[in-house]
Structures are given as structure tokens and as C-alpha cells.
């Protein structure tokens, strides 16, 4: 079977003819294999779902009464004429890369991924393949992350300063994945940790699975600066402008996102502090991941797709951008960087300016 027949790019999503299934489809299909629970990858309306056993509880929480079969990392299944297995992506708890083998050809769909071990998600494992379908949300050399421990120290210092100034620390973070990662970095001895209901609900699901997360308090009409002095309040970015925060008295706001690496995004957000941390691979991580697969062909699906594909092609890889609908469903932390904010020449050091390229839209999570 020709290489291009292993997976097809269709108007419903990535399709495997041999197995008669789709991967992370964005329109209703009979059988969907799901990399993780973010809404641009896991949507309602499919006939059946297959995901990792770790991701399934979040899928049920977000999508309701759906038919979900589960599989453990590394377990090989036969689906029609295809061999399928799920492998750790390191993006959020339960996230997976999906390996599909048909007639000796191996393709891997990355979903979203990061290489840094956050001690919460199962760490990323490279999978050797002939073709790699990869995200490239942060596919420019300007995006290079600092170690997680360094960001954790920055957040702790900001929270400590807020308490000393009589302000409530309000931290904006995406409800699934980013929020729990940040919670795992916080020291509850420093003060009470309050969470917006959307974060608290998701945290309850993950905590019930045995994830080690600090104790948190649901933010309600009865909580505020008087009842919880010195608190840190975690909320989705979309709720940062809500009047509900008034009961916490003077506040200091901060956002935690990879997009905070861009000056224009920081300016638009207008927060008191920014913390550059992402659950997606940075420029170096993307390149390491591609190299580790040994793939001869790479398809860049969402992010700076044109730029990243051109960069890979310059090193001899058959790389091309592909139009998808990933990164369009969750506006919770969506940013569309201005043309003059990011460096598009991969050979440069990230100090210049150029327009973001891409067949796919900038991803909505961070």
C-alpha cells in the first residue's frame, strides 16, 4: 500500500481507510480515536470513542454519556486492517500519540505534546515511524521554555509578594492540564488555594484518578479576601474580567501561557505578571521530537505550520503544512500573535520580526 494511503486528510479529520476510523475528528463520525480531552481534539457526536484509560474520565466529564472504550499505553490493538497503539504525549494527563501501522507503513499522529516531564502527565515517548503528523503550535525559534522549576519559583515569589502587599493573587490558566500542572507546583503551606468551578471540577476528576494535587477550595459567593486572606485564586483566562473577583479585594493578576513570550500578547492581556509556561513543545522540543521519530515525512497540522514545514524541508525532510481544525474549539486561552511579534526565520535567534505562517490556525490552548 502506498505511504499516502495509511491516513487521509479529510473534511472530517484524519481518516484511516484500512481501519475505518478517524483520529481527533472535528465532525461526527462512527468511530473516533482520541488523543486527549481538549475540545478541539475531543468533540461530541461520534458513534464511539477510543482513548487511553487515563484520558477517559475527563472525556466523560466533558462530553457526558458517550461510548468510550479504553486502552493502556503501549497496548497494540487490531482495528480492521490496521494495528493501533497509544503512546505518551506528555501534554496533559492521559494524552497520547496514536501509532497506526498498515501494510508495514507506520504513521504517528502526535496530538498535542511537550517533551519536558511535568511530573503529572506520563512523559513523552518518541515513536519511530515513516510519517509523523505533528502539531507546531510554538513552531518558531522565539519560543524556548525555561525549566519548570524556575517558573514555579517565579510564581511562588509573586504569590508571596501579593500576600505581603495585602493583595489576592489571581492566576489565569486553562482548565484542563495547565491548571493542574500549576497546582502541582504550588506549596499549600504558603496560603489557601482557591479555584474557579471549571478548574475545580476538572481537578476533582483527575484527583479521583490518583493524581497528586494539593488541597484546593472551590471559589463561591461565600469565599473572598476576608475568609481567605493571602489566597491564590486560579481561574480560566476567560473569567479574569468577571465581577466575581471583586469580593477578593485588591488583586494582582497574572497569566501562565507560552504566548506570554510575545510582547504584543502581554500588552493585550494587560496583567500585572506573566509566566511563560506551556503544555506544548517549544521550538527545540519540536525539532527533537521530529528527529527522534526518524520520520521521512512530516505533516505540520496547527500552529506556525508553513514556517516549521519549510524549516524541516531545508534539512531534507519531506515536510508540508496541512489544514486542520485543531486549535479552533477552545477560546479559553486563545491568542493570535500580531505579525510583528514573532521571528519566522528558523535560522535566526528569535530577535527579529516576521508574520506567523501557517495553514492551520494558532492553537487555542497554551
TrEMBL record:
Kindly give the InterPro entries that the UniProt entry links to this protein: MBL, RibonucZ/Hydroxyglut_hydro, Xnuc_lig_assoc
Q: What is this protein called?
A: Ligase-associated DNA damage response exonuclease
Give the region (Disordered) as residue ranges. 325-366
Q: Which NCBIfam families match?
A: Xnuc_lig_assoc
Compositionally biased, Low complexity: which spans? Answer: 328-354
Q: Hydrolase: is it a keyword of this entry?
A: yes
GO MF annotation terms: exonuclease activity; ligase activity; RNA endonuclease activity
| Record's keyword terms, sorted | Exonuclease, Hydrolase, Ligase, Nuclease
Amino acid at each position: 500500500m502506498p505511504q499516502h494511503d495509511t491516513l487521509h486528510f479529510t473534511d472530517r479529520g484524519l481518516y484511516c481507510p484500512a481501519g475505518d476510523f478517524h483520529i481527533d475528528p472535528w465532525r461526527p463520525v462512527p468511530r473516533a480515536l482520541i488523543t486527549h480531552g481538549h475540545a478541539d481534539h475531543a468533540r461530541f457526536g461520534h458513534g464511539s470513542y477510543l482513548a487511553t484509560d487515563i484520558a477517559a474520565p475527563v472525556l466523560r466529564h466533558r462530553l457526558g454519556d458517550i461510548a468510550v472504550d479504553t486502552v493502556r499505553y503501549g497496548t497494540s490493538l487490531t482495528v480492521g486492517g490496521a494495528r493501533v497503539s497509544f503512546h505518551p504525549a506528555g501534554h496533559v494527563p492521559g494524552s497520547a500519540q496514536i501509532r497506526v501501522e498498515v501494510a508495514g507503513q507506520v504513521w504517528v499522529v502526535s496530538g498535542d505534546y511537550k517533551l519536558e516531564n511535568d511530573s503529572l502527565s506520563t512523559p513523552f515517548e518518541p515513536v519511530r515511524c515513516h510519517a509523523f503528523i505533528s502539531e507546531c503550535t510554538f513552531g518558531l525559534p522565539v519560543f524556548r521554555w525555561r525549566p519548570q522549576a524556575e517558573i514555579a519559583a517565579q510564581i511562588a515569589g509573586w504569590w508571596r509578594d501579593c500576600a505581603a502587599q495585602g493583595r489576592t493573587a489571581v492566576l489565569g490558566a486553562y482548565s484542563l492540564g495547565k491548571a493542574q500542572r500549576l497546582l502541582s507546583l504550588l506549596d499549600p503551606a504558603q496560603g489557601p488555594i482557591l479555584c474557579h468551578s471549571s478548574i475545580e471540577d476538572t481537578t476533582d476528576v483527575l484527583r479521583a484518578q490518583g493524581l497528586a494535587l494539593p488541597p484546593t477550595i472551590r471559589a463561591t459567593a461565600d469565599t473572598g479576601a476576608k475568609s481567605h486572606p493571602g489566597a491564590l485564586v486560579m481561574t480560566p483566562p476567560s473569567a479574569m474580567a468577571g465581577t466575581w473577583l471583586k469580593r477578593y479585594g485588591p488583586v494582582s493578576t497574572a497569566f501562565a501561557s507560552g504566548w506570554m513570550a510575545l510582547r504584543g500578547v502581554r500588552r493585550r492581556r494587560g496583567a500585572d505578571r506573566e509566566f511563560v509556561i506551556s503544555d506544548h513543545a517549544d521550538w527545540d522540543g519540536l525539532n527533537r521530537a521530529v528527529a527522534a521519530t526518524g520520520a521521512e515525512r512530516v505533516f505540520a497540522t496547527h500552529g506556525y505550520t508553513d514556517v516549521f514545514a519549510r524549516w524541516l524541508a531545508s534539512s531534507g525532510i519531506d515536510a508540508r503544512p496541512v489544514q486542520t481544525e485543531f486549535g479552533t474549539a477552545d477560546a479559553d486561552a486563545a491568542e493570535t500573535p500580531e505579525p510583528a511579534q514573532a521571528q519566522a526565520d528558523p535560522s535566526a535567534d528569535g530577535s527579529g520580526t516576521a508574520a506567523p505562517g501557517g495553514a492551520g490556525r494558532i492553537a487555542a490552548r497554551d
